[in-house]
Design brief:
The complex is a heterodimer.
Chain A: H1 2-12, E1 18-27, E2 30-40, E3 45-49, H2 56-64, E4 71-76, E5 79-80, E6 91-94, H3 106-116, H4 121-134, H5 150-162, E7 168-172, H6 180-197, E8 200-205, H7 208-214, E9 217-222, E10 225-230, H8 232-237, H9 242-247, E11 252-261, E12 266-270, E13 275-279, E14 290-295, E15 301-303, E16 313-323, E17 327-334, E18 339-345, H10 348-351, E19 362-366, E20 373-375
Parallel strand pairs in A: 3-8, 3-9, 6-7, 7-8
Antiparallel strand pairs in A: 1-2, 1-4, 4-5, 9-10, 11-12, 11-14, 12-13, 14-20, 15-19, 16-17, 16-19, 17-18
Chain B: H1 7-31, H2 47-54, H3 56-89, H4 96-108, H5 111-129, H6 137-162, H7 166-173, H8 178-189, H9 191-207, H10 210-215, H11 223-232, H12 237-282
Helix pairs in contact in B: 1-12, 2-12, 3-6, 3-9, 3-11, 4-6, 6-9, 7-8
Classes of the chains: A alpha+beta, B mainly alpha.
C-alpha cells in the first residue's frame, strides 16, 4: 500500500517511465556498456544512435532481457525488471531480421504472443484483426512470411510486436533490411503507426537520418557510453563533443588553443586555417586551453572575389566538387593542406550572376562569428 | 547456348556413366538368368525371384534388418536431435569439448573398434548385472543407434546453426518459455534435417555389417550378414535378385523424394515471385 502511494507520488512528479540506472555490461574483459544512465518519458520515441559495436544493441538486449546487466538497474513503470526473464517482461521487440516464424501464417505470427498469455480465442481473433488493420495487412492474413515483400514483412513484424500492447517497444534497426527508397517512405509511416498506438519506444540505429526523422530524442553512443542526449535539433546545432559533431551530419573541425578570452568573445588560433577563429560569445575555460571549433559546411561561405585577411577567413583552391542536385559541396584545400567543405545552393551562383568556380580556382572561405561551435572534448 | 560438349568431354561422360552403371545393370540382367552359374547366360527366367521369396532365412533377415533399421533410426533421431541442439545452442559448459568429441567419435572411429568396444561393454555388463542376457536385437539396436545418432546430431546441428537465432529470441520475447520454444519453433524449423537424418540412419543401419557382426547373436542374422555369408560360399543368383529388388526400391524412393522436393521448391519460388510482383505494383 505504501509502495503504491509512493509510486503514485513519483509519477505525479513526472518521474521517468523507464529508468536505466548506471547499467554496465561486461563480456569477459571487454565492457560493452559502460555505466549508462537514461530516463525515458512515457510515449516518447527515443533513438539510440551509434556505429556498430558501440554497445547500443547490447543495451537493447538488456532491456529485452536477453542479456543480464553486470551491474545497474532497469526500472519500468515503477517496477524493477532487471532480473526478469524475457518472457515475463511487458516489453516486446521488433527484430532487425523481423524474425517472422516461417512456418506460421501472418495471422498466426501475430497471435503467437497472445496465445502464450492464454488469452481466450475470441479475444485473440479480435486483437489480431485489429493489428492487421493497423498495419493494413488484413488481406494477407493467411500468407506465409516468404510470400510477402520486405516492406510487408516489416509491417507484420511491427503488428506482432504491438499485439501484446507492451509497455515498452524495442526496435532494432527497424528499417535496416529495406532498400533506401522504401526506407524513407516507411520511416514516417512507422512513426504515424507508433503515435496512433501511443507506445513508448526505444529504437536502435546506425542511420542518423532514420534517427533524426523518427525520434523525439536521440542518444549518441560510443564505446559503451552515452555521450549526448537531446532532440535532433539540439544534437545537430549544439553537439557537446567532437564525436557527436562529426557523427551527426558533416562538419569542419579546427583544433587550437584559446588565445583571446573576453567575456563576450573568444579567439582560437588555428594553424590549419592559417588565421584565427573569432567567436562572438564567451566560453567557460581558461586562456590557452586546447579546444575544437566545429563549423557545418552549410555555414561556410564561398567567395570568388578576394576577401580581406582576418579572422574567420581563409584562402584556398577548389580541390573537389560534389554535385548533389539542389546543392553542391566544394572541397577547398587551404595552404596547410586542410580541406574545408562548403555547401553551396545550386542557384547561388546564378542568382548573383557569378561564374561558378571550378577545379583549381582560388576561392575564399569564411563564416559568421556566431557559427562555430566550441567543443572542449 | 554453350550446351554443346566437345567430343572429349562427351567421351569422359560416357565412360563415367558406364563405370558407375555397368555393374548395376549386369547385376539386374543376371538376376533373370536361367542358369545356376552367375557368369554364364542360360536364358531368361524369373525363378530366382520365386526362390528368393521362398527362402525363409533371407526373408527373416530382411524382416529383422528392417525392424532394426526403423528402431535405430527412431532412437537416433530423438537422441541425435537433442545432442545437436546442445551442440548448437548451449554456451560452453564444463566438458562441452569432450561431449562434442564423443558425439562425433562413432563417425570417425573405425567400425571394428566401435563394435569391439561395445561387445566388451555388453559382455561385462552381462557378467555384472545380467543385462543384456544375450546378444541379439537389443544389442544391435544399441550399436546402430550410437552410430546413427552421431550423423543425426551433425545434420541437425548444422541446420540449427543455419537458422536465424533471433527466431527463438523473438518467441521468448513474445512470452514463450524455453521448452515450448523448442517444440513450437525450433523443432518445426529443423524438421527437414530430422527427416533426412532419419533416412540416413535407416540406410546406415540397413547397410551395416561390421558393427553388427560383433553385436549379433545366434538367433539374429541381419540381411548384410546373410548376403556376406552366401557370397563367401559362392555367388548365388538369388542374391542378384535380392540386389535388383533393393536397387528398384532405393531408386523409386530417391526419385520420389527428388520429385517432391523439386515441386515444393518450385511452388515456393512461384510464391516469392508473386509477392515481389505485387509489391512492385504497389509502390
Amino acid at each position: 500500500m505504501v509502495e503504491t502511494v509512493k509510486q503514485a507520488a513519483a509519477s505525479a512528479q513526472g518521474a521517468p517511465y523507464l529508468r536505466i540506472a548506471n547499467v554496465v555490461k561486461k563480456f569477459g574483459d571487454t565492457t560493452a556498456v559502460d555505466g549508462v544512465d537514461l530516463d525515458i518519458r512515457k510515449n516518447e520515441i527515443f533513438a539510440l544512435l551509434g556505429s556498430s559495436g558501440c554497445g547500443k544493441s547490447t543495451l537493447l538486449r538488456m532491456l529485452a532481457g536477453m542479456e543480464r546487466p553486470t551491474s545497474g538497474k532497469i526500472i519500468l513503470d515503477g517496477e524493477d525488471i532487471t532480473a526478469l526473464a524475457p518472457y515475463d517482461r511487458p516489453i516486446n521487440m521488433m527484430f532487425q531480421s523481423y524474425a517472422l516464424f516461417p512456418h506460421m501464417s501472418v495471422a498466426d505470427n501475430i497471435a503467437f504472443g497472445l496465445k502464450q498469455d492464454k488469452m481466450p480465442k475470441g479475444e485473440i481473433d479480435a486483437r489480431v484483426a485489429e493489428m492487421l488493420d493497423l498495419v493494413q495487412m488484413r488481406k494477407y492474413a493467411n500468407r506465409k512470411p516468404y510470400q510477402l515483400s520486405g516492406g510487408q514483412q516489416q509491417r507484420v513484424a511491427l503488428a506482432r510486436s504491438l499485439a501484446k500492447r507492451p509497455k515498452l517497444l524495442l526496435l532494432d534497426e527497424p528499417l535496416g533490411a529495406l532498400d533506401k527508397k522504401l526506407r524513407q517512405q516507411t520511416q514516417l509511416e512507422l512513426v504515424n503507426t507508433l503515435e496512433q498506438v501511443g507506445v513508448t519506444c526505444i529504437m536502435v540505429t546506425h542511420d542518423q537520418e532514420e534517427a533524426m526523422t523518427m525520434a523525439t530524442r536521440i542518444g549518441i553512443m560510443s564505446e559503451g557510453q552515452l555521450l549526448q542526449i537531446g532532440s535532433p535539433a539540439e544534437i545537430y546545432d549544439y553537439p557537446n563533443c567532437r564525436f557527436t559533431a562529426e557523427f551527426i551530419g558533416d562538419t569542419n573541425m579546427f583544433a587550437g588553443p584559446v588565445v583571446v578570452d573576453e567575456p563576450d568573445s573568444v579567439e582560437i588560433d588555428s594553424p590549419e586555417l592559417g588565421s584565427r577563429i573569432h567567436i562572438d560569445h564567451g566560453i567557460t575555460g581558461p586562456k590557452g586551453m586546447q579546444v575544437w571549433a566545429s563549423i557545418r559546411p552549410e555555414d561556410v561561405h564561398l567567395d570568388v572575389v578576394p576577401q580581406a585577411a582576418g579572422p574567420n577567413v581563409a584562402r584556398g583552391q577548389v580541390h573537389d566538387i560534389a554535385y548533389l542536385g539542389s546543392f553542391s559541396v566544394y572541397h577547398v584545400k587551404l595552404a596547410s593542406g586542410k580541406v574545408v567543405k562548403s555547401m553551396v545552393a545550386a542557384n547561388h551562383w546564378h542568382e548573383n550572376s557569378i561564374t561558378p568556380p571550378t577545379w583549381g580556382d582560388t576561392v575564399y572561405v569564411s563564416w559568421r562569428p556566431d557559427m562555430p561551435v566550441v567543443l572542449t572534448r | 547456348m554453350h550446351n554443346k560438349l566437345s567430343p572429349f568431354l562427351k567421351g569422359v561422360l560416357v565412360v563415367g556413366f558406364l563405370f558407375l552403371y555397368i555393374p548395376i545393370v549386369s547385376l539386374i540382367v543376371y538376376s533373370f538368368n536361367e542358369s545356376k552359374l552367375v557368369t554364364v547366360w542360360g536364358g531368361f527366367s524369373t525363378k530366382w525371384y520365386a526362390s528368393l521369396f521362398a527362402n525363409e532365412q533371407i526373408m527373416a533377415a530382411v524382416k529383422l534388418s528392417i525392424e532394426i533399421a526403423l528402431a535405430s533410426a527412431l532412437a537416433a533421431v530423438v537422441l541425435g536431435t537433442i545432442a545437436g541442439f546442445v551442440l548448437a545452442r548451449f554456451k560452453r559448459f564444463p566438458g562441452s569439448t569432450l561431449f562434442a568429441g564423443m558425439m562425433t567419435a562413432p563417425m570417425v572411429m573405425p567400425e571394428v573398434i566401435t563394435g569391439l568396444s561395445m561387445l566388451l561393454l555388453f559382455i561385462s555388463m552381462q557378467q555384472l548385472v545380467g543385462v543384456p542376457s544375450e546378444r541379439g536385437f537389443i544389442t544391435i539396436w544399441v550399436g546402430h543407434t550410437t552410430l546413427c545418432m552421431a550423423y543425426v546430431a551433425v545434420v541437425v546441428r548444422s541446420r540449427l546453426l543455419e537458422i536465424d537465432q533471433s527466431l527463438e529470441d523473438a518467441a521468448m520475447d513474445l512470452g514463450a518459455r524455453p521448452l515450448k520454444i523448442f517444440f513450437v519453433i525450433t523443432l518445426p524449423l529443423v524438421s527437414q534435417a530430422i527427416a533426412s537424418g532419419f533416412l540416413l540412419s535407416v540406410t546406415l543401419s540397413l547397410d551395416d555389417l561390421v558393427t553388427t557382426a560383433f553385436l549379433s547373436g545366434p538367433g539374429s542374422t541381419t540381411l548384410p550378414q546373410v548376403i556376406f555369408s552366401k557370397v563367401r560360399l559362392g555367388l548365388n543368383p538369388e542374391i542378384n535378385a535380392l540386389a535388383s529388388i533393393t536397387v528398384l526400391v532405393v531408386g523409386v524412393v530417391v526419385l520420389l523424394a527428388n520429385y517432391l522436393m523439386l515441386n515444393a521448391q518450385r511452388n515456393r519460388d512461384k510464391a516469392i515471385a508473386a509477392a515481389m510482383r505485387e509489391s512492385g505494383a504497389h509502390s
